[in-house]
Design brief:
The active site is at residue 135. Helix content is 27%, strand content 29%. It is of the alpha+beta class. The chain has a domain at 44-159: 2-Layer Sandwich (Alpha-Beta Plaits), CATH 3.30.70.640. The longest helix is centred in the last third of the chain and has 19 residues, at 119-137. The chain is elongated and about 55 Å long.
Length: 167
Amino acid sequence: MTNKTPTTPTLTHFDQTGQAHMVDVGAKQDTHRIAVASGTIRMLPATLALIESGNAKKGDVLGIARIAAIMATKRTSDLIPLCHPLALTRVKVDFSIDAEHASIHCTAQAETVGKTGVEMEALTAVQVGLLTIYDMCKAVDRGMVMTDVRVMEKQGGKSGDWKVDKI
């Protein structure tokens, strides 16, 4: 019986001296890459009713949150240190209302043809989309909670495809 020590993945944003650096992806092949992230914001039922009815004082909450999410996705490398700037080929942001749980679920999909993945871009879209909902509704509901933000799947690249197991 052989006793193998499990290998621990290495973090790649550190050089040989332990200093943070931007990873060199120059030798990688360009591939079609997709990432999907999601998250939820919970609120008072009355707040959700304002959003659904279109009667929020600041306007179309979900429409503005969608635009904010897309804009933020394009600026991810400006927000996250050491994140590569990417030429995105597609960003899709969807919101679904869950009246039973007084919440809104955000799903974002980011795509590129490039040398590195788009997980950070998809996560940024979700976070900014949810933050925009909070910002537009905080006057009536400061207790909103953003939760369960995570990558749901990724496709492409050297490490291959990955999808979250059913929750």
